[in-house]
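Known limitations

C-alpha coordinates in this collection are predictions and should be treated as such. Users comparing against experimental data should check residue numbering before alignment. To illustrate the layout, the record for Diguanylate cyclase (GGDEF) domain-containing protein is reproduced below. The input appears on top and the generated C-alpha coordinates appear beneath it.
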Amino acid sequence: RELEHDMTQAIARGEFWLAYQPLVNSQSRAVTGYEALLRWDHPRLGAVPPDRFIPLAEETGAIISIGEWVLQEACRQAATWPDDLRIAVNVSAVQFWVPNLVDTVRNALSISGLDPHRLELEITESVVMRDNDSVVATLDELRELGVSIVMDDFGTGFSSLSNLKSYAFDKIKIDRSFIATIDRDTSSRAIMRAIVGLGHSMNLPVVAEGVETEEQLHLVALEGCVQVQGYLFGRPSVAPAFETRQVSAI
Ligand code: G
Ligand code: G
Ligand code: NA
Ligand code: MN
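Generated C-alpha coordinates:
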Protein backbone atom coordinates (compact mmCIF):
# COMPACT_ATOMS: atom_id res chain seq x y z
CA ARG A 1 0.00 0.00 0.00
CA GLU A 2 0.94 3.62 -0.32
CA LEU A 3 1.61 4.28 3.37
CA GLU A 4 3.74 1.16 3.40
CA HIS A 5 5.85 2.43 0.54
CA ASP A 6 6.18 5.97 1.95
CA MET A 7 7.31 4.57 5.27
CA THR A 8 10.40 3.02 3.69
CA GLN A 9 11.58 6.50 2.71
CA ALA A 10 10.42 8.42 5.74
CA ILE A 11 13.68 8.06 7.66
CA ALA A 12 15.81 9.30 4.77
CA ARG A 13 13.42 12.20 4.21
CA GLY A 14 13.50 13.25 7.82
CA GLU A 15 9.76 12.84 8.32
CA PHE A 16 10.00 11.09 11.68
CA TRP A 17 10.50 12.94 14.93
CA LEU A 18 10.26 12.08 18.59
CA ALA A 19 7.77 13.58 20.99
CA TYR A 20 8.65 13.37 24.68
CA GLN A 21 6.28 12.92 27.59
CA PRO A 22 7.49 13.52 31.16
CA LEU A 23 7.59 10.85 33.86
CA VAL A 24 7.32 12.42 37.27
CA ASN A 25 7.71 11.47 40.91
CA SER A 26 4.23 11.05 42.36
CA GLN A 27 5.12 12.83 45.61
CA SER A 28 7.41 15.66 44.58
CA ARG A 29 6.16 15.96 40.99
CA ALA A 30 9.76 16.36 39.91
CA VAL A 31 10.44 15.17 36.37
CA THR A 32 12.54 12.00 36.47
CA GLY A 33 12.69 11.39 32.75
CA TYR A 34 10.82 11.31 29.48
CA GLU A 35 9.26 8.67 27.27
CA ALA A 36 10.05 9.03 23.58
CA LEU A 37 7.01 8.62 21.32
CA LEU A 38 7.44 8.36 17.58
CA ARG A 39 5.69 10.85 15.30
CA TRP A 40 5.44 10.81 11.52
CA ASP A 41 4.74 13.98 9.56
CA HIS A 42 3.71 12.69 6.17
CA PRO A 43 4.26 15.30 3.45
CA ARG A 44 0.73 14.95 2.10
CA LEU A 45 -1.32 13.26 4.84
CA GLY A 46 0.08 15.29 7.71
CA ALA A 47 0.52 13.64 11.09
CA VAL A 48 -0.06 9.89 10.78
CA PRO A 49 -0.99 8.45 14.19
CA PRO A 50 1.44 5.81 15.52
CA ASP A 51 -1.48 3.47 16.19
CA ARG A 52 -1.87 3.39 12.44
CA PHE A 53 1.67 3.14 11.12
CA ILE A 54 3.46 1.16 13.85
CA PRO A 55 1.35 -2.00 13.39
CA LEU A 56 1.99 -1.66 9.65
CA ALA A 57 5.71 -1.22 10.23
CA GLU A 58 5.63 -4.33 12.39
CA GLU A 59 3.96 -6.31 9.61
CA THR A 60 6.39 -5.23 6.92
CA GLY A 61 9.49 -5.38 9.08
CA ALA A 62 10.12 -1.65 8.58
CA ILE A 63 10.00 -1.38 12.39
CA ILE A 64 13.53 -2.80 12.48
CA SER A 65 15.14 0.20 10.83
CA ILE A 66 12.61 2.65 12.30
CA GLY A 67 13.25 1.24 15.77
CA GLU A 68 16.98 1.63 15.26
CA TRP A 69 16.44 5.26 14.25
CA VAL A 70 14.26 5.83 17.35
CA LEU A 71 16.93 4.38 19.66
CA GLN A 72 19.70 6.48 18.12
CA GLU A 73 17.67 9.67 18.08
CA ALA A 74 16.36 9.24 21.64
CA CYS A 75 19.85 8.48 23.00
CA ARG A 76 21.36 11.37 21.05
CA GLN A 77 18.89 13.86 22.49
CA ALA A 78 18.90 12.44 26.02
CA ALA A 79 22.70 12.67 26.11
CA THR A 80 22.32 16.48 26.01
CA TRP A 81 19.93 16.52 29.00
CA PRO A 82 20.89 16.85 32.66
CA ASP A 83 22.41 13.58 33.94
CA ASP A 84 19.60 12.78 36.34
CA LEU A 85 16.99 12.50 33.59
CA ARG A 86 16.25 9.11 32.11
CA ILE A 87 14.91 8.27 28.70
CA ALA A 88 12.33 5.55 28.00
CA VAL A 89 12.11 4.07 24.52
CA ASN A 90 9.42 1.69 23.27
CA VAL A 91 10.76 -1.46 21.66
CA SER A 92 8.46 -3.62 19.55
CA ALA A 93 8.28 -7.40 19.93
CA VAL A 94 9.35 -7.64 16.28
CA GLN A 95 12.68 -6.05 17.18
CA PHE A 96 13.28 -9.04 19.46
CA TRP A 97 12.78 -11.50 16.61
CA VAL A 98 15.91 -10.43 14.78
CA PRO A 99 19.27 -11.27 16.28
CA ASN A 100 20.89 -7.85 16.47
CA LEU A 101 18.79 -5.90 18.99
CA VAL A 102 21.56 -5.93 21.58
CA ASP A 103 24.05 -4.61 19.02
CA THR A 104 21.57 -1.92 17.98
CA VAL A 105 21.16 -0.75 21.57
CA ARG A 106 24.89 -0.96 22.31
CA ASN A 107 25.58 1.04 19.16
CA ALA A 108 23.03 3.76 19.99
CA LEU A 109 24.62 4.08 23.43
CA SER A 110 28.16 4.29 22.14
CA ILE A 111 27.42 6.78 19.34
CA SER A 112 25.56 9.08 21.74
CA GLY A 113 27.77 8.53 24.76
CA LEU A 114 24.63 8.15 26.87
CA ASP A 115 25.14 6.40 30.22
CA PRO A 116 23.34 3.03 29.81
CA HIS A 117 21.81 3.45 33.26
CA ARG A 118 19.80 6.36 31.89
CA LEU A 119 18.12 4.21 29.24
CA GLU A 120 14.90 2.30 29.85
CA LEU A 121 13.43 -0.01 27.25
CA GLU A 122 9.66 -0.41 27.37
CA ILE A 123 8.45 -3.75 26.12
CA THR A 124 4.98 -5.24 26.06
CA GLU A 125 3.83 -8.66 27.10
CA SER A 126 3.82 -9.75 23.46
CA VAL A 127 7.63 -9.90 23.68
CA VAL A 128 7.55 -12.53 26.39
CA MET A 129 4.33 -14.26 25.40
CA ARG A 130 6.05 -17.36 24.17
CA ASP A 131 8.54 -18.74 26.60
CA ASN A 132 11.47 -18.26 24.38
CA ASP A 133 15.07 -18.86 25.38
CA SER A 134 16.37 -16.30 22.94
CA VAL A 135 14.12 -13.59 24.42
CA VAL A 136 15.41 -14.43 27.89
CA ALA A 137 18.98 -14.29 26.63
CA THR A 138 18.39 -10.98 24.87
CA LEU A 139 16.81 -9.42 27.96
CA ASP A 140 19.75 -10.64 30.05
CA GLU A 141 22.28 -9.17 27.62
CA LEU A 142 20.43 -5.86 27.56
CA ARG A 143 20.46 -5.71 31.33
CA GLU A 144 24.16 -6.55 31.33
CA LEU A 145 24.67 -3.43 29.22
CA GLY A 146 23.19 -1.51 32.14
CA VAL A 147 19.85 -0.59 30.58
CA SER A 148 16.61 -1.29 32.41
CA ILE A 149 13.63 -3.19 31.13
CA VAL A 150 10.13 -1.94 31.77
CA MET A 151 7.03 -4.05 31.26
CA ASP A 152 4.66 -1.63 29.53
CA ASP A 153 0.86 -1.74 29.36
CA PHE A 154 0.90 -4.22 32.19
CA GLY A 155 -2.35 -6.04 32.80
CA THR A 156 -3.55 -6.03 29.20
CA GLY A 157 -1.74 -9.19 28.12
CA PHE A 158 -2.73 -12.77 28.63
CA SER A 159 -0.14 -14.19 30.93
CA SER A 160 0.71 -11.35 33.25
CA LEU A 161 1.48 -13.34 36.35
CA SER A 162 3.71 -15.95 34.81
CA ASN A 163 5.55 -13.31 32.82
CA LEU A 164 6.46 -11.39 35.91
CA LYS A 165 7.79 -14.53 37.50
CA SER A 166 9.94 -15.81 34.63
CA TYR A 167 11.57 -12.63 33.41
CA ALA A 168 13.70 -10.12 35.15
CA PHE A 169 12.06 -6.74 34.76
CA ASP A 170 13.15 -3.62 36.53
CA LYS A 171 9.81 -1.87 36.62
CA ILE A 172 6.21 -2.30 35.52
CA LYS A 173 3.89 0.26 34.02
CA ILE A 174 0.19 -0.27 34.66
CA ASP A 175 -1.81 0.23 31.52
CA ARG A 176 -3.72 3.46 31.40
CA SER A 177 -7.03 1.65 30.92
CA PHE A 178 -6.84 0.70 34.61
CA ILE A 179 -6.17 4.27 35.67
CA ALA A 180 -8.85 5.91 33.54
CA THR A 181 -11.77 5.10 35.82
CA ILE A 182 -10.22 4.70 39.27
CA ASP A 183 -11.69 7.96 40.49
CA ARG A 184 -15.21 6.82 39.53
CA ASP A 185 -15.30 3.09 39.74
CA THR A 186 -14.43 1.07 42.83
CA SER A 187 -13.81 -2.15 40.92
CA SER A 188 -11.16 -0.64 38.65
CA ARG A 189 -9.66 0.81 41.79
CA ALA A 190 -9.49 -2.69 43.25
CA ILE A 191 -7.83 -3.98 40.09
CA MET A 192 -5.31 -1.17 40.14
CA ARG A 193 -4.53 -1.92 43.78
CA ALA A 194 -4.08 -5.62 43.01
CA ILE A 195 -1.70 -4.89 40.13
CA VAL A 196 0.38 -2.51 42.20
CA GLY A 197 0.47 -5.04 45.04
CA LEU A 198 1.62 -7.70 42.63
CA GLY A 199 4.47 -5.53 41.41
CA HIS A 200 5.51 -4.60 44.90
CA SER A 201 5.41 -8.21 46.06
CA MET A 202 8.09 -8.84 43.45
CA ASN A 203 10.04 -5.77 44.54
CA LEU A 204 9.28 -3.96 41.32
CA PRO A 205 8.50 -0.27 41.28
CA VAL A 206 5.18 0.44 39.59
CA VAL A 207 4.49 3.35 37.28
CA ALA A 208 0.97 4.58 36.59
CA GLU A 209 0.42 5.93 33.10
CA GLY A 210 -2.54 7.91 31.81
CA VAL A 211 -2.92 10.02 34.95
CA GLU A 212 -5.17 12.89 33.93
CA THR A 213 -6.66 14.19 37.18
CA GLU A 214 -5.52 15.17 40.66
CA GLU A 215 -7.86 12.54 42.08
CA GLN A 216 -6.23 9.81 40.00
CA LEU A 217 -2.81 11.04 41.11
CA HIS A 218 -3.89 10.96 44.71
CA LEU A 219 -5.21 7.41 44.41
CA VAL A 220 -2.20 5.91 42.62
CA ALA A 221 0.22 7.68 44.96
CA LEU A 222 -1.72 6.28 47.90
CA GLU A 223 -1.23 2.77 46.54
CA GLY A 224 2.48 3.37 46.25
CA CYS A 225 3.11 4.17 42.59
CA VAL A 226 6.32 6.12 42.81
CA GLN A 227 6.30 7.32 39.25
CA VAL A 228 3.43 8.66 37.20
CA GLN A 229 2.87 9.81 33.67
CA GLY A 230 -0.09 11.41 31.96
CA TYR A 231 -1.73 14.51 30.60
CA LEU A 232 -1.93 15.96 34.13
CA PHE A 233 1.83 16.53 33.91
CA GLY A 234 2.28 16.97 30.21
CA ARG A 235 1.35 15.67 26.80
CA PRO A 236 3.93 14.21 24.46
CA SER A 237 5.60 17.19 22.80
CA VAL A 238 8.78 18.44 21.16
CA ALA A 239 12.09 17.65 22.83
CA PRO A 240 12.47 19.53 26.10
CA ALA A 241 15.02 22.34 25.93
CA PHE A 242 17.56 22.50 28.71
CA GLU A 243 20.21 25.12 29.16
CA THR A 244 23.09 23.97 27.01
CA ARG A 245 26.03 22.95 29.09
CA GLN A 246 29.52 23.76 27.95
CA VAL A 247 31.21 20.81 26.42
CA SER A 248 34.94 21.20 26.15
CA ALA A 249 35.90 20.70 22.55
CA ILE A 250 39.48 19.75 21.94
O1 G B 1 2.32 8.24 20.85
P1 G B 1 1.05 7.61 21.28
O2 G B 1 0.91 7.93 22.69
O3 G B 1 -0.11 7.97 20.41
O4 G B 1 1.39 6.07 21.02
C1 G B 1 0.51 5.15 20.46
C2 G B 1 1.15 3.79 20.50
O5 G B 1 2.32 3.75 19.69
C3 G B 1 1.56 3.35 21.89
O6 G B 1 1.21 1.99 22.05
C4 G B 1 3.05 3.48 21.88
O7 G B 1 3.66 2.55 22.73
C5 G B 1 3.39 3.21 20.43
N1 G B 1 4.64 3.87 20.09
C6 G B 1 4.93 5.18 20.11
N2 G B 1 6.21 5.40 19.76
C7 G B 1 6.76 4.18 19.53
C8 G B 1 8.05 3.74 19.14
O8 G B 1 9.01 4.50 18.98
N3 G B 1 8.22 2.39 18.97
C9 G B 1 7.22 1.51 19.15
N4 G B 1 7.47 0.22 18.95
N5 G B 1 5.99 1.88 19.55
C10 G B 1 5.76 3.20 19.72
O1 G C 1 1.54 2.00 24.81
P1 G C 1 2.21 3.19 25.44
O2 G C 1 2.03 3.20 26.90
O3 G C 1 3.61 3.39 25.03
O4 G C 1 1.38 4.40 24.89
C1 G C 1 1.57 5.69 25.26
C2 G C 1 0.34 6.36 24.72
O5 G C 1 -0.46 6.88 25.77
C3 G C 1 0.64 7.51 23.80
O6 G C 1 -0.25 7.43 22.74
C4 G C 1 0.32 8.73 24.67
O7 G C 1 -0.06 9.83 23.86
C5 G C 1 -0.84 8.21 25.48
N1 G C 1 -1.04 8.92 26.73
C6 G C 1 -0.09 9.38 27.56
N2 G C 1 -0.64 9.99 28.64
C7 G C 1 -1.97 9.89 28.47
C8 G C 1 -3.08 10.35 29.26
O8 G C 1 -2.96 10.93 30.33
N3 G C 1 -4.31 10.07 28.76
C9 G C 1 -4.50 9.40 27.59
N4 G C 1 -5.75 9.20 27.18
N5 G C 1 -3.48 8.97 26.83
C10 G C 1 -2.22 9.21 27.26
NA1 NA D 1 5.35 2.96 26.34
MN1 MN E 1 1.74 1.91 28.00
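For this record: The first strand starts at residue 16 and ends at 25. Residues 37-38, 50-51, 54, 70, 90, 92, 236 surround guanosine-5'-monophosphate (ligand 1) (CB under 6 Å). Please report discrepancies through the issue tracker.
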